[in-house]
Amino acid sequence: MLYKTFIRPLLFRFDPENVHHFVSSSLQIIFRIPGMAALARSLTEVKDARLEREVFGLKFKNPVGVAAGFDKDARLFGALENLGFGFVEVGTITPKGQPGNEKPRLFRLPADGGLINRMGFNNDGLEAAVSRLRKRRDSGVIIGGNLGKNTLTPNTGAVDDYVRLYEGLFNVVDYFVVNVSCPNISDLRELQDKKALREILGSLQALNRKKPHPKPVLLKVSPDLNELQLDEVIQLVSETGIAGVVAVNTTISREQLKSQEERIRNVGKGGLSGKPLQNRALEVVRYLSEKSGKAFPIIGVGGIFTAEDALQMLEAGADLVQVYTGFIYEGPFIAKRINKAVLKETGK
Description:
Blueprint: H1 2-11, H2 16-30, H3 36-44, E1 53-55, E2 58-60, E3 64-66, H4 77-81, E4 87-93, E5 96-98, E6 106-109, E7 114-117, E8 123-125, H5 126-133, E9 142-147, H6 158-169, E10 175-179, H7 194-210, E11 217-221, H8 227-240, E12 244-247, H9 261-267, E13 271-274, H10 278-291, E14 298-301, H11 307-316, E15 320-323, H12 325-330, H13 334-346
Parallel strand pairs: 3-4, 3-15, 4-9, 9-10, 10-11, 11-12, 12-14, 14-15
Antiparallel strand pairs: 1-2, 5-8, 6-7, 7-13
Helix pairs in contact: 6-7, 7-8, 8-10, 10-11, 11-13
């Protein structure tokens, strides 16, 4: 209640991207103070063996993670673990650091419980991420690496970017997510074409199979795909042997928003996340799960704000869930609330 009554209204008075940097820096500083990490874990962590999940060969201490985009530069995964999350997906990481799109590029839609972003894969690049991830302590938190091509890399050279990221991150992350569904990179979504995707995923899997201990490779899918395209995703997972999918990314849709039309026009292009995405995310997860006969694991993300939202996503066929916009709107106890609800369901 403290967060939603006092802290959130204060933070929402300021530019969203500036607030994100402020909160990120504050978390890093706070958790350097002796005892603060332990205190935070005592308040937010739910420890219970019944929460553990073994998914695509990895053991997650609980099913609640942070989606890519929150920890773009692999600076916050330790702090996020202290807030009770079982896994953190860092990135999107590109081979070379890049500034992203022009500011402002992140916008709140409080009337809808949503965010629109056109960040453009702003990040410090592969080398910086690897340097930080090498310092991760031996703990229970699982780290995923979300992979994207550089904006200036033509689609014809995209495979090389994804291969470079895979090789560079292999020893410092636990699983990989191929991101070709972000709407904020010019021409990126053309890589969702079946032929282009087969080349990218096939190349990564060929490398993966040569490793003594291969790591899971997943595909992040767009909520804007139609059923025929989702069928192609199912077929590609089978053909390439990747470990599963993350469903879903942000949407370009602006349907049924409560925010004023003028506000939406002024914001302009970008990917929409949060509550407006919830129903579509559930539809996509349910379709992929049922149509494939639950042939592969799914990480469900999109519009999860409450424990009930998370339970719905799990019931729709997700094996794990991720939050991002819900985390911003609901505050630091969101993982605890979801994990307690999962435990309650488990005990029925």
